[in-house]
Write a structure and sequence with these properties.
The chain is built from 8 helices and 7 strands. It is an alpha+beta fold and about 260 residues long. The protein has 2 domains: about 90 residues, no CATH class; about 160 residues, Histidine kinase-like ATPase, C-terminal domain (Heat Shock Protein 90, 2-Layer Sandwich), CATH 3.30.565.10. A hairpin with a 3-residue loop joins β6 and β7. The longest helix has about 30 residues.
Length: about 260
């Protein structure tokens, strides 16, 4: 089989899969009942069975249900990622811009939610916001997703050391959020495709295709929704810095005009 024939066939299969996803999710990818309802029903039944055997002393049974719960949650995360991608690619995502406090309403809350899991993994999570005001004009949902994906990656790929979230401002008074870690890093050769769909160095750093293959693609797309810039610095086996720059000069009229 020639490389060209394989590529065309692979692209055709991916296009067909993408179309099937759109059809399953309906006109509004935010309401994909046909996809989520069966999964939620399954989780409900598994939870019920787990409660019934909660007094079981059989470690194999307990491990089985714990593994099932982890796998189910991962399926849900993957479905959410795929539906978000579909929504952006079809142009059906409609941002709603309003004033939000990036510190108290989003990042500080995410920090508190993730601190426990980070500490359990032996990772020191540091949060530093010395700005008097971190209010920005943005789309709440997409901005939140940007930092959810970035922080999830930090916790997953930083096996030891620390990760830090730092607020600063540049000379133009634009707010900058830096997320620095001492994780496995990214090689320079991988930078050109870093934000592509299903792009991960060394097949998700570990050799398999996982849900976070889509995470950085969504970070880039959601940054574009909010007209933010994203910069990356990284060194293999040293760590990475992701920098989100938010333009304070864009008002709601200009953002709405740019998004139409």
């Amino acid at each position: 089989m020639t490389a060209g024939y394989w590529l065309r066939g692979n692209q055709a299969r991916r296009s067909e899969a993408k179309q099937n996803l759109y059809e399953c999710s309906g006109d509004d990818p935010r309401n994909p009942h046909e996809i989520r309802t069966p999964i939620n029903a399954e989780l409900g039944y598994v939870g019920y069975l787990s409660d019934l055997i909660s007094e079981s002393k059989d470690s194999e049974v307990i491990d089985c249900f714990n593994g099932k719960d982890i796998a189910s949650q991962r399926i849900i995360r993957t479905i959410d990622l795929l539906l978000n991608v579909a929504e952006l690619q079809t142009g059906s995502y409609q941002p709603s811009f309003h004033q939000i406090d990036l510190d108290t309403e989003i990042l500080n809350r995410l920090y508190r939610e993730r601190s426990l899991s980070a500490n359990e993994n032996g990772l020191e999570l540091i949060y530093n916001c010395s700005l008097k005001s971190a209010r920005i004009l943005a789309d709440d949902y997409s901005v939140t997703q940007i930092f959810v994906y970035l922080k999830n990656n930090v916790i997953k790929y930083t096996k030891y050391g620390k990760a830090e979230i730092q607020f600063t401002k540049n000379i133009n008074e634009n707010i900058i959020v830096e997320i620095r870690d001492t994780g496995i890093g990214i090689s320079k050769d991988f930078f050109p495709i870093l934000f592509g769909h299903f792009a991960q160095e060394e097949q998700v750093y570990t050799g398999s295709c996982k849900d976070d293959d889509l995470g950085l693609a969504l970070v880039k797309s959601y940054s574009e929704v909010n007209y933010e810039r994203i910069e990356v610095e990284s060194e293999k086996n040293v760590g990475s810095t992701f920098r989100i720059i938010l333009d304070k000069n864009l008002n709601i009229e200009s953002k709405v005009m740019l998004s139409t």
